[in-house]
Fold each of these.
Amino acid sequence: MTSPAAKAAGRRAQPALPRGERAVLVAVEFTGERRRLTTAARLAKLSASVAARGDDRLEDDLGDAELPEAPVADLDFEASLAEFEELARSAGAEVAATLIQRRAKPDAATLVGTGKIEEIEGVVASMEADLVLFDHDLTPSQMRNLEARLPCRVIDRTQLILDIFARHARTREGQLQVELAQLQYMLPRLAGKGKAMSQLGGGIGTRGPGETKLETDRRRINLRIDHVKEQLDAVRRIRRQQRSRREAVPVPVVALVGYTNAGKSTLFNALTAAGVLESSRMFATLDPKLAKIQLPSRRKILLSDTVGFIRNLPHTLVTSFRATLEEVERAEILLHVRDASSPMIDEQKAQVEKVLAELDVMRKPTIEVLNKIDLLPERERLLLRAGDGVVAVSGLTGAGMDVLLAAIDHALVRDPLVEAQFRVPQSEGAVLAALEAGAVVSEKRFEGNLAYFKAVGPASLVGRYRKFQDRG
């Protein structure tokens, strides 16, 4: 009889969560690892809060403020919990209950400890839940121990994210990348399941055919991993060929990067009118999108919309999606899209930069795009720091798009803008049309059969018509 793991190795991995399953969520906060605010840091935070109000009560507020030396809880735990609940909903689960466990350090056997397991078991029974979701990665032994104690399936954070990716993959490449990540996640979790899978011979030393189902499963999964990698290599060869043809006519690539649900797809549509899917669900965009747009200088660029990042993004996903993220690696400019309305905006920035550092692209020119300013009160919008590589926009309303396009134009260093005076015979209609289409033409006048004008455009275009330049 073929085991479930072997069956999974023989076909594309399927999402773990059928639609509408009731889930109990378990969030774990390890208090021994909490970030603590010093008195100075809390004073600075309070000062910033009062300054943002714009009144003159700062001195009174600081004087009356109680600033105990005792450590305080992690400031972003509540926001992280809300993010975890949104992850569960994005996977199609119905959140039946959310449990929080605070302990100094993880329990080696079960992560949460025996007492908490009993509480989870009771909640699962009373809510008639189908599964338990942990906002933490579980080791193979922890997963096995929890499944032995709880009357339903147990899924950890990585498996949940993989499930969402499996739902949203539309292209063949995206499906292969998800399957590879799922198989790599599954392989070490076969360990310890030998008793359930082994073909026992019945004699002393369990004589039998010599290969357990556990070993067979491992072999089949490894073979499937090799096969998926070969298919991905073929996809990457096609992508390289397409890129080579594209680079024969040099068009700079600008890549959108950012935390999941920062509004990248909405911004992409605002800039390109491409009509890609916009959704408040996490990881709604999985497969990369490319569209050509024209900048104020008339230069053309390719804008790339990429998969969003998230805290504790599974390493297997970063590895598996390197083909998709090649657009980020090859981009001339990165647009780091940030949700200006998020209470975790700084933490999200740090998580995105962590992945960008892993891709070795932190040195690329980057424009920070503070998106969703339409969700901020007017007073907060006025306090946003703009300029010096930071642009405030709303992808939904279109506010700030002109400023963003101008910032991209200014940041491009390849094929820079140059200015030249031209004298073109009117009979050279193709030259006139090409310059007017690809450059900004001004000061145009006609004398006899000659057209005189100034053109500001890409050096490659202006240089192509060097013989018509007026050097007098």
Amino acid sequence: MRGSKSMAVAVRNPQNEIILHEEPLTAKIYTSNWWQWPFVRGLAMLWDALGLGMRALMWSADVAMQDEEEGSVEFSGPLAWTTIATSLAFAIGLFILLPTFASKWLAGFFGDHAAVDAIFEGAIRLILFIVYLWAIGLMPDIRRVFGYHGAEHRTINAYEAGEELTVANVQR
């Protein structure tokens, strides 16, 4: 979770304890007035969210790989970057290349109109995304992630409403 001055990540380790990592946000996009301009801020925050998310995932993988006997194991180096590159290639293939080529092929049956191609591409991407979310939602670990993500949103809503952060207020 990212706030205006710091970010925090909470992860459950193999011993079933919740480990918290917090760090201040000191980059120029948080402290400079120029970065607060609407369009500039949006692009910068999108890029920053990607970086923070990658760091949080790498840290959570490190925590998940901890072993009581062997101590700390780090998810880094070639293994980590190969995993990330493979995942990125799969996502680009599934959500960008497949819909593009499939829509061009389908649009060929309708006279190759650009509007038909765009409609098919959008529909294919939406269907793939919904099926992907449904399929990964069948995995118990991802179901837990979805639950935590929903809890984050409820917590933020309670906080922004000025409520005391209790379980009852957050659930409401």
